[in-house]
């Protein structure tokens, strides 16, 4: 094994300094695992961190991205969770194993990979064994890499927190990574799924994936369409991807005692909406910031059990990281993956 490896890194906030660098191979401690990276999936958050820092205390040189799959190359002498040769995926929020999120009201925790912790756009990573979960047996490396953030976010919203039931009406906004995982998970649960999109072509692809209804967001009043499609019942669950003032539309579309999972910030970091439907319908409005390791392990089990296949728009090579970041701006259908 070489004593050197390649990784993408930057010396300052802003994408201008992003480049491939050569670094010494990481050394592992007694409780750490050395993993050879096979694939990294990208989230829009990765682009935001690179461009703005998102107010995080980043350590430089900064290695971006949080979601990877790989194979264990070596383990520390006290490691018990994994052995060399086993396939693993990263956890988005290391240390959040189960239960309540770490942190407090004044300072909620946001210590994630590709943020406060080092990222994974590297040929090898060395992390504590608890920062990994076993990869699904039914997925290839690229598919498995999409689970830690996008897959888990949809699972946490709909299953872990949402208690989704067969027959529930679910609105999925858009056709990005979280949205398509939400569509697939909801259909596997027996829910009725309505997808909204500004792209007729992407709506057709979502219908082919199993969506029951497609709503053209730019030319139709999606709230009225939800009423019409559900006989005025409204949506039992809405994956609110846009954020901003879009929350107000979700409050109108949600059913009494329904649930809105606020996930995205595409329309800004401030959300707003009318108070009347909030008071009269008593919906649960929950913020979803991915989830804990136990829920990720539950998702992995479900993926193998039901045969869920993540949707990958395009697979890029390691040297094409910049091109993949540019693709994020164009709105991929599903996920973008870097293969090593």
Supply the CATH superfamily name of the largest domain: Medium-chain alcohol dehydrogenases, catalytic domain
**Count of separate structural domains:** 2
The biggest beta sheet reads: 7 strands, mixed
Mean pLDDT: 96
Please bin the fraction of helical residues.
25-40%
What do these coordinates show?
- The protein has 340 residues and is of the alpha/beta class.
- It has two domains: 4-150 and 291-339, Medium-chain alcohol dehydrogenases, catalytic domain (Quinone Oxidoreductase, Chain A, domain 1); 162-287, NAD(P)-binding Rossmann-like Domain (Rossmann fold, 3-Layer(aba) Sandwich), CATH 3.40.50.720.
- The protein contains ten helices and 15 strands.
- The chain has helices spanning 44-52, 141-144, 147-160, 177-189, 200-209, 222-229, 246-253, 275-281, 293-306, 321-329, and strands at 4-9, 19-24, 32-42, 67-75, 87-90, 124-128, 132-134, 169-173, 192-197, 213-216, 235-240, 254-262, 284-287, 312-317, 335-339.
- The strands form three sheets. Strands 3, 4, 5, 6, 7, 14 and 15 form a seven-stranded mixed beta sheet that branches.
- Helix 3 (147-160) crosses helix 9 (293-306).
- It is globular, with a radius of gyration of 20 Å.
- The mean pLDDT is 96.
